[in-house]
Design a protein that fits this description.
The chain has 353 residues and is α+β, with helices and mostly antiparallel strands. It is built from 10 helices and 19 strands.
Length: 353
C-alpha cells in the first residue's frame, strides 16, 4: 500500500476531506529526504500539495507526485486550505497543543479532527523499510565495532561514546535513543544509564541496547556478550532468553495475535526458569519507525493481529538484582508467511565476544 492509499483510507474512515501535515515526524513520513525542512503538506484522497517558503521551493523538486506551492508564511497555507471550503479537516496528531492553538483560529473548515499519526504510520512502505534496513545495518555494525574494540578497564560511558561516534561516522544523523551500556550487575537495570566510573572487568556480562536515525528512520537492537570466561549462570541465562526470543520471532507473521508473541516468551520462562521469568516486567516488543516507539505494541494486553509490513521489536529479557540481566532484541518486518529480521547482521548465537 502506498502512502497516498493509506491517506485515502484514513480520510474515508474519518469522513474527512483532507489531512493537514506540519510536524517534523509527518514531513519525514511524506519526504524523508526533507526531514529537517520547514514544509507543510495538504493531502486529499487524490493528491498531495506541498508548501515551502518561496526561497526554498526548489527543495520540493525531490518529492515525486505532488503539487508545489510557494509561500511567504504559514498563513498562506491556511488561506489555501480555507479557499477549498472543507467540511472536515484532519489535523496532524503530532502537533503540540501550542501549535494547534495557533492554527485552529485561522482555519474555517466546519469541523476539525485530530489524526492518529502513529496508526497511520503503522504499516510501512517498501521505501520506508529500505531506509530502516540501512539504519539497522549501521546499528549492527556498531555492535560489531564495540566487540572488536572493547577492553577490560573501559567505562560504560566510554563505550557509549564509542557507539555514538561510530554511528554518526557511518552515516546516521543521530541516536534513536540514548544508548544503554551496562556491565556486570548493572545489566539487571532495564534502563541503565552508562556510568563514567563503572569499569569493565574480565568475565563480566555486557549489555548493549542501541539504535540510530537514518534519513528520519530509527533502528533498535540489543546484544549481550562478555570478555573472558563467563560464569555458569551467565550461560544459562543467555540461553534461556535467546531460546525464548528465537521462538517468539519464529511465531511472528501476518495474522498472529500480538499478545501470543508476548505470551510465548512468558510461558517459556515460566516453564524453564520461573524465578528468573518473573523479572520480565516489560513488553516483548514495540513498533519502530520515525519514532523509536510506535505501533504495534507487543504486550499481554495486545488483543489484535499483527499485519504485513508492520515493523516491531522482539526483546524478552530477565533481570536478576545483584546478579545480572540478559535481553536479546531484534527488529523485524512482518511478511505474509513470516518475517524478515532487519538486525540479523549482528549475530546473537552464544559466544564469548
Amino acid at each position: 500500500m502506498t502512502k497516498q492509499e493509506m491517506i485515502a483510507k484514513e480520510l474515508s474512515a474519518s469522513g474527512a476531506d483532507a489531512l493537514f501535515l506540519c510536524t517534523k515526524n509527518s514531513i519525514t513520513w511524506i519526504s524523508p529526504e526533507l526531514c529537517d525542512s520547514e514544509i507543510y503538506y495538504l493531502c486529499t484522497k487524490d493528491k498531495v500539495v506541498g508548501f515551502a517558503d518561496i526561497r526554498d521551493i526548489d527543495s520540493l523538486q525531490t518529492v515525486k507526485n505532488i503539487e508545489k506551492v510557494a509561500i511567504k508564511s504559514y498563513k498562506d497555507v491556511m488561506d489555501y486550505i480555507n479557499e477549498l471550503n472543507l467540511n472536515v479537516l484532519l489535523i496532524d496528531g503530532d502537533l503540540t497543543l501550542s501549535d494547534f492553538e495557533t492554527y485552529k483560529p485561522l482555519l474555517t473548515a466546519k469541523s476539525l479532527k485530530i489524526a492518529n499519526m502513529k496508526s497511520l504510520r503503522c504499516i510501512k512502505t517498501d521505501e520506508e523499510i529500505k531506509l530502516m534496513q540501512i539504519a539497522a545495518d549501521i546499528a549492527c555494525d556498531a555492535v560489531a565495532h564495540v566487540k572488536e574494540n572493547i577492553k577490560v578497564g573501559m567505562s560504560e560511558q566510554q563505550v557509549a561514546d564509542m557507539i555514538k561516534v561510530f554511528m554518526i561516522t557511518a552515516g546516521a544523523s543521530g541516536l534513536s535513543f540514548p544508548s544503554i551500556v551496562s556491565f556486570g550487575t548493572n545489566t539487571a537495570d532495564i534502563h541503565h544509564m552508562p556510568s563514567a566510573t563503572k569499569k569493565l572487568e574480565s568475565g563480566e556480562l555486557i549489555m548493549l541496547d542501541l539504535g540510530c536515525v537514518y534519513k528520519g528512520y530509527c533502528s533498535d537492537i540489543t546484544r549481550c556478550f562478555w570478555l573472558g570466561e563467563p560464569a555458569p549462570w551467565m550461560l544459562e541465562m543467555y540461553e534461556l532468553v535467546l531460546n525464548a526470543q528465537v521462538g517468539a520471532v519464529a511465531l511472528a507473521k501476518n495474522g498472529t495475535k500480538a499478545s501470543d508473541i508476548d505470551k510465548y516468551c512468558r510461558t517459556y520462562f515460566d516453564e524453564h526458569k520461573p524465578e528468573w521469568g518473573e523479572t520480565f516486567k516489560h513488553g516483548t516488543g514495540h513498533g519502530v519507525g520515525i519514532q523509536i516507539h510506535e505501533l504495534p505494541s507487543i504486550r499481554p494486553t495486545s488483543d489484535f493481529a499483527i499485519e504485513t509490513n508492520q515493523v516491531h521489536t522482539v526483546e524478552p529479557g530477565v533481570y536478576v538484582k545483584d546478579l545480572g540481566g540478559v535481553r536479546v532484541e531484534d527488529t523485524i518486518v512482518i511478511t505474509p508467511n513470516g518475517n524478515i529480521v532487519l538486525t540479523k547482521k549482528a549475530p546473537k548465537e552464544l559466544n564469548k565476544k
